Amino acid sequence: MSHPIITYNFCPQCGKPLIQGQFSKQNYPYCPDCSFVHWGEFSLGVGGIVWRENKVLLVQRAQNPGKGNWTIPGGFVDQRERISEAIVRELQEETGLETEPVSLIALRDRPGNKHDLYMVFILRYIAGELQPELEEVSQIGFFTIEECRKLPLAHLSLSVIEASQTQLSGFIPVHGIQLIGEKSVLYQVPTPIRQDI
């Protein structure tokens, strides 16, 4: 489900009309009374790769955009949800499987009218049987990489699936570091990769 783009004409904090102003060499609507600045529209999505017996989990979309196409399972991150919680929830909702994140291996950055970020996790299967959530998923299954290449599969999905065959580690959560914000989590590569460039 896509989130609508909102045009702000009035300040959501004090209700006064917004005017255009320049911040960091860009024009943004802002409120001259309370200093609210509308920095733009953003969405955050997650996708998950689950391998079992040399086959990867795919879902067939039951809705547009992309109805009938196959993709890795995933969805949108809720406002107060960690990305690792979002992918576990989305995977369980769409497929019925219980999983846990192993690492974050890909990030798609798509600026535009709305700045859209999409992060892909490798997940470990824990439990459960395949049960498609029929409102969003018409079919579900595990496929070999050869079978994936014959399906009407989203290009991004195929790219990250192929990458995940050889790269099982990526960014992982780091614990024991003091961060601002109760739900803050730092993701970084598990071992230092230092090369003089």
From TrEMBL:
It holds the Pfam family NUDIX. The keyword ATP-binding does not apply. Belongs to the Nudix hydrolase family. Keywords: Hydrolase. PROSITE patterns: NUDIX, NUDIX_BOX. Signal peptide: none annotated. Its cofactor is Mg(2+). One of its GO terms (molecular function) is hydrolase activity. This is NUDIX hydrolase. It comes from the Bacteria. Residues 41-165 form the Nudix hydrolase domain. InterPro entries: Nudix_hydrolase, NUDIX_hydrolase-like_dom_sf, NUDIX_hydrolase_CS, NUDIX_hydrolase_dom.
